Amino acid sequence: MKRALAALALGLSLALAQGKITVWTHFGGPELEWLKAQAQAYEKTSGTKVEVVEVPFGDIKQKFILGAPQGQAADLVVSIPHDWLGEMAQAGVLEPMGKYVTQSYLSDLQSVAVEAFTFGGKLMGLPAFAESVALIYNKKYVKEPPKTWEEFLALAQKLTTGSTFGFLYNIGDPYFNFGFFRAFGAENVFAKDAKGNLDPSKLLLGGEVGEKALSFIKDLRFRYNLVPEGVDYGVADGAFKDGALAMIINGPWALGDYKKAKIDFGIAPFPTPPGAKNPWGPFLGVQGVVVNAYSKNKTAAVNFAKTLVTGKNLVSFNQAGGRIPVSKSAAKTLEKDPVVAGFSRVFALGTPMPNIPEMGKVWGPWANAISLAIQRPDSNVKKIVEDMVAEIKKAIGR
Amino acid sequence: MKHPPGLTGFLLALSLLLGLLILSTGVGVLGYLVLEAYFAPPGWSILVLALLVLVPGAILVGRLFPWLTDWYYFLPALSFLLVFTLYPIALTVYLAFTDYSGRKNGFPDRSTETRVLKQEGPRLTLEEPVREALRCDPCTGEPVEVYSEGHRARARILEAEGPTLLLDRTPPFPVEYVAKVNAFQFVGLKNFGFILSQASKALLPVFAWNVAFALSTVLLNAFLGLVLGLILNNKALKLRNFYRTVLIVSWALPGVITVQVFVALLNYNFGAINRLLGVLGVYPIPWLNDPDWAKVAILLVNLWLGFPYMMTATLGALSTIPDELYEAAKVDGATPWQALWGITLPLLEKPMVPILLSSFAFNFNNFYIIYLLTGGGPAQEGRLATAQATDILISWAYKTAFSAEGQSAYGLGAAISLLIFAITVAISLVNFRVTGALREVR
After folding, report:
1. Is the torsion defined by CA of B191, B196, B197, B202 positive or negative?
2. Tell me, what's the ipTM?
């Protein structure tokens, strides 16, 4: 018995010494193929076995936070959006990356990406690519993207016929709607304090800003008759893929499918909504690779993470799925790519989505307020905004 | 010694077995903790240590109480019960009184990781001022974790000044890093207070709809199931086996898929159902977009999912009614209608009532139909985002714990589930008392 146990222990420790790392990913299709190819290449050069496991996007954060301290989570995740960073870092499951990276690596990254992956003054992951929503138009219907709201409205209404739609988007989701809030005066969801950190006690979505933005979103449905009831992400995305939709607000993640459907598309910023004082500007999301703080094979995990985010590999990643790399050298190589160029212009208008954990308490009431506003033509926008602000403040104050 | 009779014997045997299991697990865990101070033992060493206690313990107890040895067949089942039922229940009760969450999880906050420059006994010098590096104010009493490659230890801060801090114990290894621990603590009844503070905007309306939903879905399903069961039971009906098979199809399909299909079918502008109604000249119905119609949609979809069960139950119960009763009724000159009201329905009552009650209890916590069909939505004015028009208690609990309140508010979620447990038990007790179902079954 004891001998068998000793042999078992020896076998286990040998297996560990040889090395194996697990990667969780939410990538699919060609991007997953890319990751698997990277894993194989890394296996060849380092001798460390890399196992790629697909985990649904929505499950990753919770599974990782719960599993990591028990040794039941992957050694690294490819990739997480930066707005999960605060919560995951505070839960203690992320390895701070500052001690592993060089200055030249950092200087090759766009500063907004480094900012997005910095929490509490520490770099908690390696940013890889950025994303935001933009106005994606089908060139079959739209020759030149509309520059002003009047052009946009005329075009969209003209193209809304029995068999085609002028403009649809996932109207119930705050992420797709933030651009309008920004246009009507919200710099971000929270204001910054004196030190430049987001201050969760200063919510910018309420008051006049919220009322105007919500009224505009409501008007898209009931006044301009563009986005009818029943439109959600699936409907809008499907219509664009079928070539029945001229313009959509969507992000780089959808482009692979649009290419596959042979849609000739272009990318532009949404025009400034009527009566707004600022230009439309979306949430900027940065996704990056994070390493498990409890990993048994940290060095291998960190090294693999670093190979994934080199400029060269990010270029090949862009070619696989069309995501926009945050590395300056990669962006330079891809300068001529119309998608990269189009999104780069949109990024300039956006602002990073907050990465503080308090943001988690905003999404629910915010989505609730939007769906209330677009439920009936006579919805009381002022009261809806007041209720939303009260609910968020109460949740954050707790 | 002979087996003690009746309940005493049962309880004695059960407590001896449970005691044995708990004792050996306790020794296993304790031994693991002791070993951990010297080297990093693998997780399964707990199991080995526990078995080292359990096997001799079982032999010893078997000598003392020879009658108990037959009960040892229960040990595997009991240990599963302990691990998968009793432990989670105990943990839920415990967590309901704490502020445990994804953030306050008892693990070190790695974003406060700070390098230790100098170490003299329990006094550490950090590379940054303690207050900023560990983000604590005041820092006295804060739990921290100190670690280096392969070692980790917990300690508390006794005092902090500038970049130096004094720990309450001397770490037994050279420390490289220190990080604050996100400790969770007892908060007493605060979680329950928070739930009750939402009573008018969440708890009460959600509870009312929950009861209405469970009650009407059971009655609707039972009514349709009963009618279909009675029709199919008629031996004069041709092709009745064919009808029976067809009618059971909706039960045979996985509900998760059916509900997703219904979401698409019920879409306001793009769903097949509204298009069909449009052909018939009916205005499109906002199935999933209107707070009231969404409730109707849920009841209808649940009817589609649930009536075959009731139909099968009715058919089964009908087959237990002896044909002689109907023959006697016929001889006495009763009409089929009188036979239905006088014989069939009264005789169906006894087997059906427990089925209806268990169906009510199941639907009371029927999370998946709500979550998949409407996600609790649509939004309703004057309500919280976590308690929308079709949210039932369990989906409200899920949203409160996992999508609002800092996403992983397990303490709060545990408190809500305790509350739901109490409500379900209360309703079941009332049900059993009123219908006398328990007495009948006995």
Report:
1. positive
2. 0.73
